[in-house]
Specification:
The structure is a homodimer of 360-residue chains. Chain A is α+β, with helices and mostly antiparallel strands. About 2% of the residues of chain A have low confidence. Chain A has nine helices and 14 strands. The first copy, chain A, folds into two domains: 142 residues, 60s Ribosomal Protein L30, Chain: A, CATH 3.30.1330; 158 residues, PurM-like C-terminal domain (Phosphoribosyl-aminoimidazole Synthetase, Chain A, domain 2, Alpha-Beta Complex), CATH 3.90.650.10. Chain A has a seven-stranded mixed sheet with strand order 9-11-8-12-10-13-14. In chain A, strands 2-7-5-6 form a four-stranded mixed sheet, covered by helices on one side. In chain A, 28% of the residues lie in helices and 22% in strands. In chain A, a hairpin with a 2-residue loop joins strand 3 and strand 4. At the A-B interface, helix 1, strand 1, strand 2, strand 5 and strand 6 of A face helix 1, strand 1, strand 2, strand 5 and strand 6 of B.
Chain lengths: 360, 360
């Protein structure tokens, strides 16, 4: 019939446009947003949860772990990532975000299961940059057996947002019986670190400042969930773990000393630091104890289990250079003290201001 | 003994500093970060989960709902908020973030339980601004009976970050038997909206552009979880719900038409729009069908349950002006068509570019 209404005849063709970069319209919730999701995010995050395109991902309790009905619990963590530059030796802001959130779950004894990622994009961000970051995030999730379950994208004006910020939220499963806490350290416990400290922070700084270094510095960014399972699988008493990111080893141990009301006695000689990291720190007047790692953990372990846990760590590829770096003591509660190479003692306080901004 | 080591003697006093605004050091992970958490966030978010100061919040399955062991599921959603201005009539970026995330859970049939919030702060942000936003977020959480379980703060350089961005992630409980989906619309279903559309988007625009309006425009930002429970409590077949935020009513219904492979027939006359919102839209040449709401929902309901669900909505304070605005049809699948006041038909396509940036 000639008067039949054909709605498709009324749809205007889209104007020609630049699809090599992010436009404000990509954040509008309209057609451009839908295209960005369909063409860029969904192919990378190939799973039914995001493909459902609902405003929320629905998760079956059984997908967390069998023990959820028998004393198991859930763990939730969130982190914003604003690191510059976006790409650095060893990773990029996306892999860092995935690893960082996985690690915050893992050091609490949780097995990471699901991730949500929110992107704040600057107008003009090259589409290829976003594509590369999203692809590496998907790969990092697969490697750690974590499912990217939910996402969001907003676009801010040119000149704001520094290219890209990403916020990742992690949801994990804490099997029954695990109970790590920053309040659990006891005098006599061993303090262990899984590898050389400060690699990430100095790699970022070197990339940002284009430092002329003989040996290139590479970030240690890595997912620690496998290492944690290897340590906890020993059955030994791990009291507490932390990934020493912002504020470095010093901040993590100061928080422990304060919360557990114990002292921490560190041996400078025992703390693994790569010579090139040490050299870069000296060059810039930085203390490696305050420089961030993104693929290391510090753990406090009951003394009788110290040797076995340390041994388990050293058998894991991410902790071949694990070391005992100190002891929990009853003296000077709330304070971290370092015995220096020449035998002196110095307090290692909480970082007062900032040593190195925007490293994560 | 005179040679006893007193570590506190070695701690240097902090330099005097400005504590009226955000400094880069507040994002360093050191003492300033700890102070910001202790003095600003913890007093507002007064609960044991954040007070534990662990890197992750541990949640008991029983805290979600009794049915989690009997067919209940979890729902996860994340959203970034970059709205300008930070404060607007009816709310601020913080209340918007809390309500928006709660609503994304609620429209999926989930009861919101926990929230995580990540803040990206611009150096120089007045501390009082942050305090006011955090306090209103805490109040919004309390009002919706949601627990703020995890948080993070980063600081970016002056000139970046636009004052403050916030990313909220929500975790909720989907009781057994609830199964709403964007794929579930069937011809004959009623299309309902809970109240006047476009209030939020036009309130933001009026505040941003300082429009000279006789009647001030106020955002509709509100938590929809109570309204959703009232609707689902009827036992009727609600097929799908969505809060029409970015892209407005049009985008929500276009997504539905496309995913369910149905047509949507809207009646212009039936769509509630405040006269002042209509006037502001005319003034600026905007189509209210594309303007965001942050406290409204659109629902598709089986025809036999339409009257009862509409009645239940109208008894709720947030939906006194709920209306049936259209019908799901078998014709023109994938397309939303509006019958205008003068009897014409026009296609309401997905928003192609952007009508109104950064309204959430």
């Amino acid at each position: 019939m000639s008067d039949e209404f054909d709605p498709t005849s009324l749809v205007c063709p889209l104007p020609a446009r630049d699809d090599t970069q992010i436009l404000l319209g990509h954040g509008s919730g309209g057609k451009l947003t839908a295209e960005l999701i369909q063409r860029l995010f969904l192919p990378a995050w190939d799973n039914p949860l995001v493909a459902a395109l609902e405003d929320q991902a629905v998760l079956a309790p059984a997908s967390f772990g069998e023990g959820l009905h028998a004393g198991g619990r859930l763990a939730l963590t969130t982190d914003a990532y604003v690191v510059r530059p976006l790409f650095f030796p060893g990773g990029n802001i996306g892999t860092l975000a995935v690893h960082g959130t996985i690690n915050d779950l893992a050091v609490g004894g949780a097995i990471p299961r699901y991730l949500a990622a929110a992107f704040i994009l600057e107008e003009g961000l090259p589409m290829d940059t976003l594509r590369a970051i999203v692809a590496s995030m998907a790969e990092a999730c697969r490697a750690a057996q974590v499912v990217l379950a939910a996402g969001d994208t907003k676009v801010v004006d040119r000149g704001k947002g520094d290219g890209l910020y990403v916020v990742t939220t992690g949801l994990g499963y804490v099997p029954p019986g695990r109970n790590l806490s920053v309040r659990h350290a006891r005098p006599g416990d061993w303090v262990l670190v899984s590898g050389p400290i400060g690699d990430h922070g100095m790699a970022i700084l070197a990339a940002r400042e284009e430092l002329p270094l003989e040996t290139p510095l590479v970030s240690d960014t890595a997912p620690l969930c496998g290492l944690v399972e290897a340590m906890l699988g020993r059955g030994g008493q791990v009291r507490w773990m932390r990934d020493p990111t912002r504020g470095g080893l010093s901040s993590a141990l100061n928080e422990l000393a304060s919360a557990s009301r114990v002292g921490v006695q560190l041996e400078e000689e025992a703390i693994p630091i790569r010579p090139e990291v040490h050299a870069a720190c000296e060059l810039l007047g930085l203390d490696p104890l305050y420089v961030a790692c993104e693929g290391r953990l510090v753990a406090v372990v009951a003394p009788q289990d110290g040797p076995a846990v340390l041994e388990a760590m050293r058998r894991h590829p991410l902790a071949a250079h694990a070391a005992r770096i100190g002891t929990i003591v009853a003296d000077h509660p709330g304070t971290v003290v370092l015995r220096t190479r020449i035998g002196g003692q110095r307090v290692v306080p909480m970082l007062a201001g900032q040593q190195l901004p925007r490293i994560c």
